[in-house]
C-alpha cells in the first residue's frame, strides 16, 4: 500500500528525467492527473495522457521535455512539501515563491489543484503539495 502517491509520482518523474527516459508511467488518480496537467501547462513536461489498462485501472503517462544539445531536462528540481505525517496548509498571503518566482508551487485548494500564481489571483489558500523549478 502506498502512503504518499504524490511523492511516488514526483520520484518517478525525477528518476525518469535523470535517466533521460522519454516518458514516466504511474498508476492513475484524479489528483495525480491534475498535478501532471499543471506541469504540462507550466511547460515542465511535454504531454500527459491518461488511459485505462486491461485490468480496469487507470494509468498516467507523462512525456518528459528536454532541451538543448545536451538534452537537459526542463525540470531542474522537485520537492514534496506536504507529507502524510505533516500536512502544510498556507493562506493566500503565505504562499511561498519558489526560486524567487522562477519555479512554481502546486496547491490543493477548495477551487481545485492550482499553481501559486492562480491561488494568489483567486485569493485562496490550501495544502501546499509540491514545488517544481
Short description:
This protein has 133 residues and is α+β, with helices and mostly antiparallel strands. It is 25% helix and 35% strand. The protein has one domain: Dna Ligase, domain 1.
Structural features, described:
The protein is α+β, with helices and mostly antiparallel strands and 133 residues long. The protein has one domain: 2-Layer Sandwich (Dna Ligase, domain 1). Helix content is 25%, strand content 35%. The protein is built from three helices and ten strands; from the N terminus they run αβαββββββββαβ. It has helices at 5-18, 30-41, 116-122; strands at 23-27, 45-52, 58-64, 66-67, 72-73, 78-80, 89-90, 104-109, 112-115, 126-132. Strands 6, 7, 8, 9 and 10 form a five-stranded antiparallel beta sheet that branches. Strand 2 (45-52) and strand 3 form a beta hairpin. The model has no long low-confidence stretch (mean pLDDT 95).
Number of helices: 3
Mean pLDDT over all positions? 95
State Rg. 15 Å
Class from helix and strand fractions: alpha+beta
Name the CATH architecture.
2-Layer Sandwich
**Oligomeric description of these chains:** single chain
What overall form do the CA principal axes indicate? globular
Amino acid at each position: 500500500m502506498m502512503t504518499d502517491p504524490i511523492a511516488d509520482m514526483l520520484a518517478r518523474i525525477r528518476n525518469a528525467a535523470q535517466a533521460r527516459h522519454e516518458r514516466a508511467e504511474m498508476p492513475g488518480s484524479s489528483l495525480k492527473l491534475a498535478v501532471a496537467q499543471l506541469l504540462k501547462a507550466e511547460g515542465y513536461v511535454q504531454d500527459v495522457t491518461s488511459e485505462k489498462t486491461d485490468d480496469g485501472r487507470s494509468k498516467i503517462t507523462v512525456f518528459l521535455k528536454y532541451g538543448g544539445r545536451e538534452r537537459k531536462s526542463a525540470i531542474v528540481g522537485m520537492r514534496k512539501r506536504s507529507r502524510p505525517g505533516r500536512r502544510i496548509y498556507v493562506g493566500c498571503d503565505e504562499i511561498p515563491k519558489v526560486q524567487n518566482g522562477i519555479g512554481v508551487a502546486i496547491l490543493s485548494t477548495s477551487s481545485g489543484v492550482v499553481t501559486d500564481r492562480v491561488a494568489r489571483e483567486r485569493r485562496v489558500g490550501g495544502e501546499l503539495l509540491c514545488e517544481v523549478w
